[in-house]
Design goal:
The chain is an alpha/beta fold. The protein contains eleven helices and twelve strands. The strands form two sheets. Strands 3-2-4-7-1-8-12-11-9-10 form a ten-stranded mixed beta sheet. Helix 4 (about 85-95) crosses helix 11 and helix 6 (about 135-150) crosses helix 10.
Length: about 350
Amino acid sequence: MREVAIVAFGQSVHVRDSAETSEVEMLMPVLHDVLAQTGLAARDIDFTCSGSSDYLAGRAFSFTMALDGVGAWPPISESHVEMDGAWALYEAWVKILTGEADTALVYAYGKSSPGDLREVLTRQLDPYCVAPLWPDSVALAALQAQALIDAGLTDERALAGIAARSRTAAESNPHAQLRGAGPAGEPLVAPLRTGDCPPVGDGAAAVVLAAGDTARRLAPRPAWIRGLDHRIEAHSLGVRDLTDSPSTRLAAQRAGAFEHPLDTAELHAPFTSQEVVLRRALNLDAADGTVRINPSGGALAANPVMATGLIRLGEAAARIHRGASDRALAHATSGPCLQQNLVAVLEGE
């Protein structure tokens, strides 16, 4: 199998409302940044893949407008996924593995501020039995949190501790929307408080992938993708155990996460209760504190929907690039209550 690495990562400063900035204007500086990091020009990229959601933009085929940020010339080989950008990275990774490309540009963006995000995300639900009831994303996360509490796997004090740790870590992240530990916040949907939930915000991210010697030429210390897999839970929430995530565990197993010790884990956990589920599925609680979880602050510090998962991969890769990590796990999720999960294992040389 070909060696593939993340050789560059860039992201925007995530903000609550970017009403005066279009998707293209938000995206262009990030794309220019990752290309500048590698010294590549647009014509040097063999494949481009993006992740976004037309539901957030409120118009069909909105991703075609974002292509203006890539440039109209030269013509490119391009694809798009109506998913978090982590899945766009998966498609680009496969493209390089097959030998159809040596370099790839992957980007994702999301503007959640124009609409009611909690209502928009109900469109992910079963359209016949669940969506007509309009349970929003926070209410569903609260059901999952209560299931964990009832099972004795966490409590409200522990959840508040996760929020405080994540946002304290974000103090060193200049791109984060929320920085610094604060109070647990007001009750939102029991047992969740505002501090247990991610901020609504806008942002973009991009990475450059490269194969073999090309990656070594483009980056002093590439972040090699040693394994990458994604799995999905049953669509019906009623047939799932919300306190566990078998799909995350299986994806991690197939990606080789359990074969050697990790030192970093970037988990896409928009709610504090979801970090509890992911830590158990990935055996991180058994690591006895040797694995640093979400040193960037994670989704609790910045959650640009459709880009947050790609950011987890990028943050893990960036730590390898600068020598702060040797073997990192990156996780991305999509759908209600951790329905779809992707796990990647990254290593430095």
